[in-house]
Model the fold of this input.
Amino acid sequence: MFSSAKKNGAMSKIRTFVAIRVRGIIPLEAWMTHLKTCNFAERIKWNESGNWHFTLKFIGDINESQLDILKESLESELRGFPSGKVELWGAGFFGIKTNPKVLWTGIAPSEWLNELKEKVEKAVSVLELPVDDRPFRPHLTLGRIKHLKDSAPFIKEVKEQQYTVWGEQEIDRVILFKSKLT
Done:
């Protein structure tokens, strides 16, 4: 699972986040297949559907000793929490029209998802990390965009899907991920 390798005699840090996997959203996968045939496709590093997830809480670097504390806290806080559904809809991008950076699809707001997010925040609070006050905007990153010489075709494709409902996903599991920067 997580490595206990030491660097220079010190315990290595583990970059972590809490997220939910998303799989089997066929209409969204079909749209991505279409996008991969567009003239801008080679400028996008695609997140393959097998790796799709949306982040509930980015934690960052923690020590291995904190990992066990975090796992216990998450298990305790989420024990008995009911499963729920999320709806994936729309498409958009982060960045400006002339230089989009990230292609995403949204996760519809819901009371259930907000309660889950609060439980995860409470569980993570045992680590006494700095508070992140940014609003919760759940989304699924579909791809990271390198500079596009002409972003108009990309923007057109995204706008055409801005109100599309891709489907629902049953959620019964929260995962603590290890992240590697590449």
About this structure: Confidence is low (pLDDT under 50) at residues 1-9. Strands lie at 6-7, 10-11, 13-21, 44-46, 53-63, 84-96, 99-107, 139-145, 165-171, 175-178.
